[in-house]
């Protein structure tokens, strides 16, 4: 993969990494608030592993909300580590975000495809919604992968800097 030199053609990968981490924290906090403020009847959790009545029991006990909240708290923690890593120039602190980012991208792709296919299979009344979810989800995935590539490029730059020494000049190209 070729390293990115700029984020959005105007900012450095360092600034882009800081913005990405900040966005991760903000979106996680907004999602936590939404999960707990939204009425239970408008939010549906399905496991597709257990029976439907078991899913209802889980939802009544708020286990899906608690599980999602814990996951989002870890996302906030890892984004905080990314901010510290970029500011202190420590590549090993960036590694959890890089790994989590690619795992979340795969999960996002699966989620978008599953949700849109489920709505397509429900019938014609949900075809427009399924198309919007598919197109919007894929656009969101592309933006997410671009921001992941920005952070990964910054990670590689910091890792290379640590390997050759901070104050040594870059080796000459032959």
Automatic annotation (TrEMBL):
The chain crosses the membrane at residues 21-38, 66-87, 94-121, 127-149. It holds the Pfam family DUF4728. Keywords: Membrane, Transmembrane, Transmembrane helix. The gene is LOC112054524. The keyword Oxidoreductase does not apply. This is Uncharacterized protein LOC112054524. The keyword Magnesium does not apply.
């Amino acid at each position: 993969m070729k390293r990115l030199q700029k984020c959005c053609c105007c900012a450095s990968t360092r600034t882009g990494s800081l913005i990405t981490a900040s966005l991760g924290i903000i979106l996680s906090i907004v999602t936590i608030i939404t999960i707990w403020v939204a009425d239970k009847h408008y939010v549906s959790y399905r496991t597709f592993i257990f029976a439907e009545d078991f899913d209802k029991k889980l939802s009544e006990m708020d286990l899906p909300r608690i599980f999602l909240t814990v996951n989002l708290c870890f996302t906030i923690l890892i984004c905080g580590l990314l901010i510290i890593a970029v500011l202190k120039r420590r590549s090993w602190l960036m590694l959890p975000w890089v790994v989590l980012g690619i795992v979340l991208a795969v999960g996002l792709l699966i989620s978008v495809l599953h949700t849109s296919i489920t709505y397509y299979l429900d019938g014609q009344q949900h075809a427009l919604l399924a198309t919007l979810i598919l197109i919007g989800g894929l656009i969101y995935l592309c933006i997410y992968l671009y921001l992941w590539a920005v952070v990964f490029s910054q990670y590689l730059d910091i890792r290379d800097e640590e390997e050759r020494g901070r104050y040594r000049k870059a080796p000459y190209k032959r």
